[in-house]
């Protein structure tokens, strides 16, 4: 697709069936990897690890259709991760009800297009533009990405295009362009300049502070030595153990392990600087683990698994050690993954997540719009109510 601009600039949009088709440096320049708040999940290395390990491909129902926009000189100046899908697994923004309703009405919901990071419920940029461009051109490029993806959806006869876990600003832009906005909620911890974990505890009510201390004492009373491993400290035997934990959790919870064993080797090889693995050992044998990725100002918690069932061990490894790490490294946020209102009492408060949806069928679009209008109001109210259940002191004067 060629798009003539008033700037006398010819833009070309291309669809790539492999992330390796675009140079890593070119993709990362658009993905904001030079910015203070860089998000590790949109790095070229993360997408390539997914594809090269076989975790993501057409057979898995995630067929890469990545978009890049090139200028007249052939330089990549914008991009978006995109997949053609024949199911709705691994997305965390659930549309199963939409699919069932549309197919009961005689429509065909799949294939659909998904602009997202596979298996990753983490907010981050989706309409990605090269750093250093002026605001007007950047806005034009995001609009071009949106229109190009919609045209691609029409060509592929996809029922819909879903941009999930986008930024709030991107959602507003897409809503202005006719996409249907949707919100969800997750539970995130914010570092208010704490120097130690005890500083964080001091901000809590007395009862909540005591509860967390007891939970940490209990978790560390089982004879499990918990280590936080980063970068080159993580060896293949650690990944062997973690993969057993990961597949065991998948079998118990949803019956499918999306990521292959090779993915973790490639992740460690290509993104060692970002990987933080909290692992528990009994007599030097790994018994539990939680994987995190570190971004510019955020620690992102992802997968957890264990071969032991010990009280409070999950909370310690996934939540409290993550807070320890964030405080030590002066990170502003910890995002502890999807779902889980139990996180609130541990200092992780509700925070909105954003997606936007383009629906081809006008009648179906209207039905989805009515649903989303009601859902947004309900979720916004729920977030407001849940914030009051947090463990923090309600006033400055005391507990």
Output the keywords:
Aminopeptidase, 2 domains, eleven-stranded mixed beta sheet, globular, 399 residues, alpha+beta, five-stranded antiparallel beta sheet, 16 strands, disordered N terminus, single chain, 11 helices
| CATH level 1 class label of the largest domain | Alpha Beta
Q: Quickly give the CATH architecture of the largest domain.
A: 3-Layer(aba) Sandwich
Q: What percent of residues adopt helix (DSSP H or I)? A: 25-40%
**Topology, number of strands:** 16
Strand order of the largest sheet: 3-6-7-9-16-10-15-14-13-12-11
Order of helices and strands: EEHHEEEEHEEHEHEHHEHHEEEHEEH
Question: What would you call the shape?
Answer: globular
Distance between the termini: 61 Å
The fourth-level CATH homologous superfamily of the largest domain is: Gcn5-related N-acetyltransferase (GNAT)
Please identify the structural class as seen in this structure: alpha+beta
């Amino acid at each position: 697709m060629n798009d003539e601009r008033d700037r006398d600039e010819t833009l070309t949009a291309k669809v790539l069936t492999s992330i390796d088709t675009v140079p890593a440096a070119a993709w990362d320049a658009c993905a904001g990897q030079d910015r203070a708040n860089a998000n590790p999940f949109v790095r070229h290395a993360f997408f390539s690890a997914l594809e090269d390990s076989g975790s993501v491909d057409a057979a898995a129902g995630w067929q890469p259709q990545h978009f890049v926009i090139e200028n007249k000189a052939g330089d990549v100046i914008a991009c978006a991760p995109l997949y053609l899908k024949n199911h709705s697994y691994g997305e965390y923004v659930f549309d199963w009800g939409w699919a069932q309703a549309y197919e009961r009405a005689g429509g065909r919901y799949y294939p659909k297009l998904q602009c997202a990071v596979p298996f990753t419920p983490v907010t981050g940029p989706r309409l990605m533009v090269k750093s250093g461009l002026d605001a007007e051109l950047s806005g034009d490029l995001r609009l071009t990405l949106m229109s190009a993806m919609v045209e691609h959806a029409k060509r592929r006869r996809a029922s819909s295009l879903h941009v999930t876990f986008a930024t709030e600003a991107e959602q507003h832009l897409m809503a202005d362009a006719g996409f249907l906005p949707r919100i969800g909620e997750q539970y995130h911890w914010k570092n208010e300049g704490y120097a130690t974990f005890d500083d964080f505890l001091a901000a809590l009510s007395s009862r909540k502070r005591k509860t967390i201390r007891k939970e940490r004492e209990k978790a560390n009373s089982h004879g499990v030595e918990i280590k936080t491993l980063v970068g080159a400290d993580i060896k293949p035997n650690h990944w062997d153990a973690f993969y057993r934990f990961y597949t065991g959790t998948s079998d118990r919870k949803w019956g499918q392990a999306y990521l292959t064993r090779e993915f973790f080797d490639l992740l460690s090889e290509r993104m060692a600087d970002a990987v933080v693995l909290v692992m528990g050992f009994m007599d030097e044998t790994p018994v539990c683990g939680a994987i995190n990725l570190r971004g510019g100002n955020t620690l992102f918690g992802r997968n957890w698994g264990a071969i032991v069932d010990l009280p409070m061990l999950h909370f310690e490894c996934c939540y409290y050690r993550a807070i320890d790490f964030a405080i030590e490294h002066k990170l502003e946020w910890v995002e502890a993954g999807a779902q889980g209102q139990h996180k609130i009492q541990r200092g992780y408060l509700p925070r909105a997540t954003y997606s936007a949806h383009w629906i081809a069928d006008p009648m179906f679009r209207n039905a989805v719009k009515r649903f989303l209008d009601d859902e947004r109001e309900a979720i916004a109210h729920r977030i407001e109510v849940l914030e009051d259940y947090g463990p923090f002191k309600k006033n400055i004067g005391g507990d």
